[in-house]
Amino acid sequence: MKNTAEVIIIGGGIIGCAVAYYLAKRGVTDVIVLEGSDHIGNGGSSRNGGGVRQSGRDVRELPLVMYGIKNLWPNLSEELQVACEYHQDGNLRLGKTEKHREILTKLANNAKGVGLDVRMIDGDEVRQINPYLSDEVICASWCPTDGHANPLTTTLGYYKMARKMGVRFISGEPVKELRLIKGRIRQVITPNSIYEGESVLVAAGLDSREILTTVGIDIPMTNSLLECLVTEAQPHMFDQMLGTAEADFYGHQTKHGSFVFGGSSGLERYNKDNGMVSNSSKTAPCICRGIMKYFPNLANAKIVRTWAGWMDASADGVPAIGKVEEINGLYVACAFNGHGFGIAPAVGEQLAKLITTDTTDIDLYDLRYDRYKAKI
Amino acid sequence: MNSINDRSRDIGEFKSMPDDDMLICRCEEITKGEIRKAVHDGMWTLTEIRRYLRTGMGLCQGQTCSKLVKGIVARELGISPAELEPATSRVPMRPIEMKVFANEAEKLKEAN
After folding, report:
1. pLDDT digits over A110-119, tens only?
2. I need a surface site. Which of A15, A89, A111, A253 has the fewest CB within 10 A?
């Protein structure tokens, strides 16, 4: 089969699959998606906690995620013909101390500044929204337009539709090098093949750094471990997405009835992981202790599964998205810092527009890849 | 591991079969027909099938159905079951209550 395409997408995660789908929707189906692992959506796309939220985000990425929540998420299940399980029932970011209140108030004020409906509420009002929360909770930021969805079916839904529309997906093809021809991006090299494209998008999560380095572009990011757990199905309790000021856990109850919670132990940077993405025996119990402080009546819920994943953490906590100015035809979308799922439909749609028309509806200037500067 | 898999390879059309409504994953109530359809939707690895349909994601974590699912997917793809890698087994080995799991550390003195 031919190894050339109009657009080559490196990375078969939710970003790569979404860009492929929106390109196909615009009539561009001569697209090859190269996935390095054996499975589509095998990185953060399948390992995150499923948040589709605006509150708690940096103002630089808010316009994109607000655009997606307004325009794309509401009809995504119909569009992709899968159950994305999108719920828009609000996000409570919980606080237990005055210090938490301070952190949450600051985040809420920043978001209000760019037009997001988010406000501080006190403990009693929190328990009116979610009666299962313990009395330790004294405040929360409340964003009624936030929500959650199923990362697995959403990612694979984008893949399924793009593939059906004629996009070619190849897994087990880890990209090692990019090569310019006549000053323009052209070749994408794997251990087995050379692919050629008019345009190339690098959306390979953490691996994007090494790939981009081969054409002299460096995005300062590092890996950061995230761990999640899931309970057996429970009777329906609530539909909000939850987070905490302390970031000791976050999560939601799924349509299936199970609770998905993510969190950390604080020891992640020093885990003995032998270079693999794997759980630490300390983390899931630590998340459990955190959850039980907020939800005492989940103490008897059984944990059935835990997992871990890498986040691609950039130097300033927000992604790098857009066109690489000094290399014609090259685009990037990486460094999503563990909150790339909710923003993915907007990124996919806008990048497809950028690649085909050289314009976007949302200004991506604040997310440009070369914004990182030394402190002095 | 990391073998090239071109997802545009032609595996033929989905044809319904008389036993498509047979339950394969009992915990999550997934039928043979759903699994076969998922293969035609592009889910060509056991990990993808699991994430797409929830097979093996219930209480038994696939201890009952994973071999059956493997056989069905392999037949649909026209390959040997040995070519399909099993989905990753995850901690804990048996479902465990949060309050028990949480006992990993001694109760800390009031940290806050």
Report:
1. 999 989 999 9
2. A89
